[in-house]
Design goal:
Chain lengths: 297, 334
């Protein structure tokens, strides 16, 4: 988005330090970081922060409106759902689910994708074309459809949703890493490493990979954003987290029937998803500006 | 040019074959007996045997794949488990609805996205630029299934402006020719039906267009900014050409090249998002049909639907690549 126009720092500074200070000057990234930190703290401190038990039902408190509504009370600040469960507590605990899904599914895609990308960029030849054709096949399925189908076959559960999202994200990591590795392989330091007899694994993971980290970090952050969205969509379709797990997408799905009677039940989980995804997208954009000028849009 | 197109088509074949292998294997990787999976747990032993025979499950895997491909070549996607209809017939019936929705959504997202992108780029750092880029960022982060429900709540339940769901109101007669209702209404000059069809499509299409619109707006802005910095734009300005000519005739043409690639990639977002949008708005397309199939565990429908959508997607991507090469001749030389 906005490109940093601030004057360049002294040339003798460590590049990492330089990038960190660029990131800090980038307002987009800082706002994103603040939002993400907020959600991480919420997730970690969920039992302390939430006023009620997120799965406890209460017959007397069904469909209470939020506090600013004429009939709202401070007991349930964001109101309650059709089973009398506190919406705020469910959203607070929901951040645990969403962040875990994002972390696990993107982590899976990162590990598999990076490995495949390294191997195919470094060894080239038949192995490379084979891996890349398989990646093409995964990319031949529209976004989200493959995840839905994989979960449909494996059975609906949060764990399977994470696996499904992870699989669909492998190609983006593999492609980025492969591109960077191909570029780095032609450079002198790789030849030097080969000349002194370093083993392939050492060259790939200790020499080449650290130099490809920039685009990889950007992709990871942006993937976290879409993983939260996809996981919420899967849960909305009934294929992710199963009730009574407090999950934002699942909360919206259950409130569909109440849309006219109690619109607030569906409003707040949606805002939570939007805010969390926005946080990761902002940070991703900022990181792209700071770490990887080539990807700047 | 022709050589380039042929080469692209040749690359398509292994991809499509791979897709068929993946879809074929899915049923076999799944834990449990595929016949039982297809018929449900309460199936009789006899029915299970029959199904195994029908699927050729007692033969080696490569033979089974051969049979699968043979059927596929004949255009036979099998029968649905619950209604015993031909999957292919059902897909053909529903696909126009999905395509109509996707095309309208794409039109909305391109027209608005490109406009916002151009205005933002020509007035960089203005209030308009700032607001539209914040809007675009929110758009990229939007859970569209939630946005659809919010639209529903505002525009049909509270304001009563737009119909809640479906493609056409009860009582509206429309002679179906192409199954694209808007097109059919135009062809038969059926104005009440045209209005009704348009009123029905606005909300789902707007919902579906959110993410692509935001992506297109961001891409257009950055591509325009890139081009506007170039020397030939300075020359054009120095020659005394009007601002309009410089922006739209000189800059936009070159800026559109990366934008078109981006637009092409959005078809995947649209076809995937169609499952969510169609489910919310009860739009009778392939997406809603696939969702129902997932809920009823009708694996034949899932298999056929996925194959069909993936094939369509691959072909659309090919068309985009070819279009790209036509616009940007540098590509086909490589």
């Amino acid at each position: 988005m906005t490109s940093a126009t601030a004057p360049r720092g002294p040339q003798d500074r460590h590049p990492l330090l330089e990038q960190m200070s660029q990131l800090w000057r980038n307002k987009t990234a800082v706002i994103g970081l603040v939002i993400i930190t907020f959600f991480i703290l919420t997730a970690l401190l969920a039992p302390l922060l939430s006023p009620h038990n997120p799965v406890e039902t209460s017959l007397y408190d069904q469909l209470k409106p939020p506090v600013w509504h004429a009939k709202g009370t401070w007991k349930n600040i964001l109101g309650t759902d059709e089973l009398g469960r506190d919406t705020l507590s469910r959203i607070i605990f929901g951040s645990r689910v969403s962040l875990t899904v994002a972390l696990v599914s993107v982590g899976l895609a990162f590990l598999v994708g990076t490995f495949l990308g390294c191997v195919s960029g470094y060894f080239k030849g038949i192995l490379d074309s084979l891996v890349m054709r398989v990646m093409d096949m995964i990319l031949a399925f529209p976004y989200l459809l493959l995840a839905i189908v994989v979960v449909a076959y494996l059975g609906p559960s949060l764990q399977n949703a994470m696996i499904a999202i992870g699989i669909t994200y492998v190609p983006r990591f593999a492609r980025i890493v492969r591109g960077s590795v191909l570029e780095e392989c032609g450079k002198d330091y790789v030849m030097a490493a080969r000349a002194i007899g370093a083993r392939d694994a050492r060259i790939i993971f200790l020499a080449i990979l650290p130099n490809c980290l920039g685009p990889l970090i950007v992709q990871t952050t942006l993937s976290m954003a879409s993983a939260i969205l996809d996981a919420a969509a899967l849960s909305f379709l009934g294929l992710g987290a199963q009730p009574p797990t407090p999950e934002w997408g699942g909360m919206i799905a259950r409130s569909r029937a109440l849309i006219l009677r109690a619109p607030w039940v569906m409003t707040f989980p949606g805002l939570a998803i939007l805010a969390a995804v926005l946080g990761f997208n902002l940070l991703g954009d900022g990181l792209r500006d700071a770490l990887d000028p080539r990807l700047r849009d | 040019m022709l050589a380039y197109i042929l080469r692209r088509i040749l690359i398509l074949i292994p991809t499509l074959l791979g897709v068929s292998v993946i879809v074929f294997l899915m049923l076999h990787i799944t834990p449990g007996d595929p016949a039982e999976l297809l018929l449900g747990e309460r199936a009789t032993e006899e029915a299970l045997l029959q199904m195994r025979e029908h699927l050729g499950l007692n033969r080696p895997l490569h033979e089974q794949y051969g049979m699968f491909m043979q059927r596929l070549m004949r255009g036979d996607l099998g029968e649905t488990i619950w209604t015993r209809q031909k999957v292919w017939v059902e897909v053909k019936q529903r696909f126009p609805a999905t395509m109509e929705l996707s095309i309208v959504a794409l039109l909305i997202s391109c027209s608005l996205g490109i406009t916002f992108g151009i205005v933002s780029a020509t007035r960089q750092y203005s209030l308009f630029d700032y607001l539209s880029m914040v809007g675009a960022l929110a758009g990229v982060s939007m859970p569209i299934f939630w946005l659809g429900l919010v639209f529903m709540l505002i525009f049909s339940l509270n304001l009563g402006w737009l119909p809640l769901s479906g493609r056409l109101s009860v009582g509206i007669n429309l002679e179906v020719i192409t199954n694209f209702y808007v097109l059919d209404a135009l062809l038969t000059r059926n104005w009440p039906a045209l209005r009704d069809a348009l009123w029905h499509i606005i909300m789902p299409a707007a919902t579906l267009s959110t993410i692509p619109m935001a992506i297109v707006a961001r891409m257009t802005r950055s591509a325009m900014l890139d081009v506007l910095r170039q020397d030939y734009i300075k020359t054009a300005k120095a020659k005394g050409l009007s601002r309009f000519t410089v922006t739209y005739k000189h800059a936009l043409r070159n800026a559109l090249i990366p934008v078109i690639t981006t637009i092409g990639l959005q078809f995947g977002v649209l076809l995937g998002g169609a499952i969510l949008t169609e489910t919310i708005f009860a739009w009778p397309g392939v997406g809603k049909w696939m969702y129902d199939a997932v809920m009823q565990r009708d694996y034949m429908v899932i298999q056929g639907g996925v194959l069909f959508i993936a094939a369509i997607f691959v072909v659309i991507n090919l068309c985009v690549d070819v279009l790209y090469a036509v616009i940007n001749p540098r590509i086909s030389v490589r």
